[in-house]
Amino acid sequence: MEISALQKERAAYLPKLPMALRGAVKVKEGKPTHSVDNQDEIKKLFPNTYGLPLISFEPGEIMLRKRVNVGVILSGGQAPGGHNVISGLFDRLKQLDPENRLYGFLMGPSGLVDHNYKEITADFVEQFRNTGGFDMIGSGRTKLEEVDQFEKGMEIIRKLDIQALVIIGGDDSNTNACVLAEYYAAKKYGVQVIGCPKTIDGDMKNDQVETSFGFDTAAKTYSELIGNISRDCNSARKYWHFIKLMGRSASHIALECALQTHPNICLISEEIQQKDLSLNDIVEYIATIVAHRAAQGNNFGVVLVPEGLIEFIPAIGRLIQDLNDLLATNGDEYRDLDEEAQWTYILDHLKGKNRAHFEHILMDNIKAALAAFSVNAVSRISGYILVTFNEHQADEAARVIRTVPGVARVSLAYHTNRDPQEYCAAAVKALREFGPFDSFKVHAKRSNTDYELTSIDINRKVGEVLCEAFPDKKVQMHDPDAMVHVLVVQGSVYVYARSERGVGGLPVGSAGKVVTLLSSGIDSPVATWMLARRGAVCVPVHFSGRPQTPDTSEYLVQDIIRALEPGVQIGRLYVVPFGDCQREISVTCPSNLRVIMYRRIMYSVAERIAHIEGAKAIVTGESLGQVASQTLENIMAVNEAVKIPVFRPLIGSDKQEIIARAEEIGTFDISTEAAPDCCTLFLPRRPETHAKLDAVHEAWELFDHEGMIERLLKQTEYIDFESNTYKAPKTLKRKHSELAPREIYQDHE
């Protein structure tokens, strides 16, 4: 084969080696290794190779050794650097002993199994040195997982007298290497199996492997192309370019290219997963930036998108999981249907399409609510959410769970296996703990039919045992005092009699975000709770009378937020010092319209904060006719100041109903503490109850309301709380730089 001048020049390049590999080296053994996670499970799978010591290299002396033959396999997709790994192996083997031999197995792991190989020679190596691709010996994706494959591989290894086998590849290829090494170690065949990490994805990193080969070249090549596109984009000034980058289920290439080229937007899959963003969140994020640049006259840009993005969107990931579970269980039934029937089948069996999404949100909220408890696990099981924890915490944990929106009922159940003796004994314990009763009933339910006893059989067995244990109690089929539930599900049995209603509603985080006007009074905390109960993430805004009043109300509002925990978790409280602006309004506007002006300003500020937060509505604690400002005419006059919806969940409630709910959610005692706030400032003696819009508009123009709104926004402070549902805004960073966080209030007398 004739070698071109270019290849001669390329072949002359000598890659730089680490200091430890320049010249002769010796091996130093370190501490035993272990997996990052699932140590026990992995140790069981690899008992002969798990825990091998960490190996490092140090300068040493060349020692005479016996002849060594080595085999090498290229596996998986090609990546620049594979040929140089083989070249390096060849050079080192020949340096140690010219009689050493290197054999390349052709077309990947199948070459080992099929005994398809080629001896690597000096002339052959020179054709491929410092070149990309895997064409020197070819690659493949054959899985090494069968004993027959291992033994066939051993036949050729013995024939060629190979002492070590090097497998160059990515995640799956190194799994092949691990499985093969474990088998040969168990059989004591005396063959070393060495995995060499290769992937352009850059997701095979640890303390010893800074980056896998292939990644650097891929990142530089992509960055060059992205840079060219960016230059074209700046030249044409009228296109948005969306560039999808390789990386499978990792975003390392996208991130590295973003650091090198500075695109307008770079989506990072892992960040999206960590923040639990939806597809709509991502679209809104991109659209906001596009709109922001358009407002500056820049109708162009570059967006980097990692190829595995879709599977990292939590809601879609959960949908994929549910589909996998469905098809794993009912695959045969599904495959027998035509295409249209298959689609209908999936929709029917996913239980309303959104159920899994809501259940996962609820599970996260329950975990957060039980942060102070020793919870073993929170999981979905056949239409239920199962929480397991230490028995002595059961009552207190159940009380907390009942406060979490989305929880319909909480039942304290015993977990047993399918042995009738065990779940009958659990039924006796459950009924004994129920409390006073005169009559009872057993209700058994099977989620699948692989258990030999029917529901009627279970009812009969458990009922007989309970009749013996409680001879003075009677069985009553209709309206019994106590009902013992026996659920047979997924290889286990759950037995309970104690069951109480939860607050119901929808899980917080399932219905978007709202801004709530939260005072230290009775009404607004109830309104906030009611919106949270319907799944909304509530972002409260408190208008303080500061500096015209003390900041007591701010402390009380923080206490209210903590009282709503753990069921309603609020992530951020905005505090607006409103006193000076109220004073200004009081001296410029007609006294009877002051309150309406106050509220129009408050609504306008809340609307701006809603835009910052990505909230879709404002929530107030107003009740029709309760005070002068809450008449239909006045409500309309205030509503007119904003464009987003204003929700009033208490609009038809009377005061006693609101008080009863406040007592139920634990905010009433706090709200009844005396605290001057903005609602008590500069109140007119005779407030307008039926405001005319013309008069409202005239009063509105008597002061610089736009300037006042901007001034209040600049003075706005915020306090952050622990919350798993709240996500701080990602856009309008310039505006957020003006909102300095206040010192979080800890305690007060």
Which characteristics define this entry?
single chain; six-stranded mixed beta sheet; Rossmann fold; 28 helices; alpha/beta; disordered C terminus; 749 residues; 24 strands; flat
Q: How would you describe this structure to a colleague?
A:
The protein is built from 28 helices and 24 strands. The C terminus is likely disordered. The protein has five domains: 156 residues, Rossmann fold; 97 residues, Phosphofructokinase domain (Rossmann fold), CATH 3.40.50.460; 40 residues, no CATH class; 93 residues, VC0802-like (2-Layer Sandwich); 224 residues, 3-Layer(aba) Sandwich (Rossmann fold), CATH 3.40.50. A hairpin with a 2-residue loop joins strand 12 and strand 13. 33% of the residues are buried.
Question: Which fold name fills CATH's third level, the topology of the largest domain?
Answer: Rossmann fold
Name the helicity range. Answer: 40-55%
Unreliable runs: 732-739, 742-749
Round the Cα radius of gyration to an integer and report it: 35 Å
Q: Return the domain count.
A: 5
Identify the CATH homologous superfamily of the largest domain: HUPs
- In whole angstroms, how far apart are the ends? 90 Å
The largest sheet, given as strand count, sense and whether it forms a barrel, is: 6 strands, mixed
Number of strands: 24
The coarse silhouette is flat
User: Regarding CATH, which class of the largest domain?
Assistant: Alpha Beta
Total helices: the number is 28
CATH architecture of the largest domain: 3-Layer(aba) Sandwich
* Secondary-structure class: alpha/beta
